[in-house]
Design goal:
This protein is an alpha/beta fold. The protein has helices at 27-39, 67-76, 94-108, 122-126, 136-157, 191-200, 218-231, 249-261, 265-275, 286-292, 309-320, 335-346, and strands at 2-6, 44-46, 82-88, 112-117, 159-160, 172-173, 184-186, 203-207, 236-246, 304-308, 325-332. Helix 1 runs parallel beside helix 12, helix 2 runs parallel beside helix 3 and helix 6 packs across helix 7 (218-231). Strand 8 (203-207), helix 7 and strand 9 (236-246) form a beta-alpha-beta unit. It is 40% helix and 16% strand. Strands 1-2-3-4-7-8-9-11 form an eight-stranded parallel beta barrel, surrounded by eight helices. A two-stranded antiparallel sheet has the order 5-6.
Length: 360
């Protein structure tokens, strides 16, 4: 099973709580996290892009770095791990994103990939005057499909004459071409989004949900497997989940309960009000899934694994057995401590990582 880390490009990581560990994002913090990931044999690191936080007493995600420039810096101080930046497609034309990707491909010597997001949070874009309106929700995956098509034409041939509903290229050029294939990741959960990912992405994130329910992602992954079969392509499922670990199950659960007690309900309410803009009622779509599975008042964006090092290892092994799962992307309550715990105490217990830990 491939292993990745969702690095802390936004303040306070992925816990929407006033009692969780507090930190501001910085290059140094993220470099430390990614170097630890590289040391412990992680396969990839990915940074999100967030342009407007959720506020509240925790100021959740009010402080954020920019994804492409951060990953360019990290490419220069790492040597093996694959790096993914996130592209908010509404913020830049595809040829610019394609050229930025080629540049980081050069810095990293072929270790770069791009995560494509369609844009769900209106305020991120309205604050800059570039929100296209509610009609964007209806055709956002058509927009992303054209966006990826242009980028891949440029990476493959150095030029594009693509003409579609959203983008019209006029002998568009992008040289040099990348030294290696640049993989595309998506994070689509709805039926329409999953079908788009199956046709145009190499990997798709299927968010977990609940507390200590690693295989609850089975339905979402099965939807992706069906869509890739219909598309005649390969698009692997990567599952994102948070790890809260300690020496014993009781100690880890005490930490989780402490974070839950400090849940920033004001920030969560703001997030959920933004999510109401999205007209889709697909129960597996990101904003709806929290309601579907009764998670809307928990201080996270997705699923959480809480327990001792052995318990966490066992739950991740269970996740690896879900048909279609190719890897997992981890977040932590405290990233530096969490990475050390995972690399030295959890990963050595995982059967699904045995082959990756063998000496070269």
């Amino acid at each position: 099973m491939r292993l990745g880390v969702f690095i802390p490009i936004g303040n306070n990581g992925w816990l929407i709580s006033t009692t969780s560990p507090k930190y501001r994002p910085s290059f140094d913090l993220n470099a430390d996290v990614v170097r630890k990931a590289e040391t412990y044999g992680f396969d990839f690191a990915l940074s999100m892009i967030k342009l407007h936080g959720f506020g509240g007493p925790s100021e959740f995600w009010d402080y954020n770095l920019e994804s492409f420039t951060l990953m360019a810096g990290l490419a220069a101080v790492t040597s093996r791990i694959q790096l993914f930046a996130t592209c908010a497609v509404l913020t830049m034309p595809p040829p610019i994103a394609a050229r930025m990707a080629v540049t980081i491909d050069s810095i990293s010597h072929g270790r770069f990939g791009v995560n494509i997001i369609s844009g769900w949070q209106r305020r991120e874009y309205a604050q800059m005057g570039i929100w296209p309106g509610k009609d964007h929700y209806d055709r956002r995956y058509d927009y992303c499909a054209e966006y990826v098509t242009v980028m891949r034409e440029l990476w493959r041939t150095g030029r594009s004459e693509f003409r579609g509903d959203f983008f019209q290229m006029d002998d568009c050029r992008c040289l040099p071409m990348p030294a290696a294939d640049i993989p595309i990741i998506c994070a689509a959960q709805s039926d329409a989004g999953t079908r788009y990912a199956a046709r145009h992405a190499d990997y798709n994130f299927c968010s977990s949900f609940g507390v200590n329910t690693p295989t609850a992602v089975t339905e979402s992954v099965a939807r992706l497997v069906r869509a890739t079969t219909e598309a005649g392509r390969s698009c692997g499922a990567l599952v994102s989940t948070m790890i809260i670990a300690d020496e014993t199950d009781a100690a880890a659960m005490a930490k989780w309960n402490h974070y839950v007690a400090g849940t920033d309900h004001q920030a969560i309410a703001w997030r959920d009000a933004q999510a109401e803009d999205d007209p889709t009622r697909d129960p597996l779509a990101g904003p709806n899934k929290r309601k579907t599975y009764g998670m809307q008042q928990l201080p996270t964006q997705g699923g959480v694994l809480v327990g001792s090092y052995a318990t966490i290892a066992g739950m991740l092994d269970d996740l690896s057995k879900v048909p279609g799962v190719q890897g997992v992307m981890l977040t932590f309550d405290d990233f530096l401590i969490g990475m050390e715990q995972f690399g030295s105490r959890i990963q050595p217990l995982m059967r699904s990582r045995e082959s990756s830990l063998q000496p070269a």
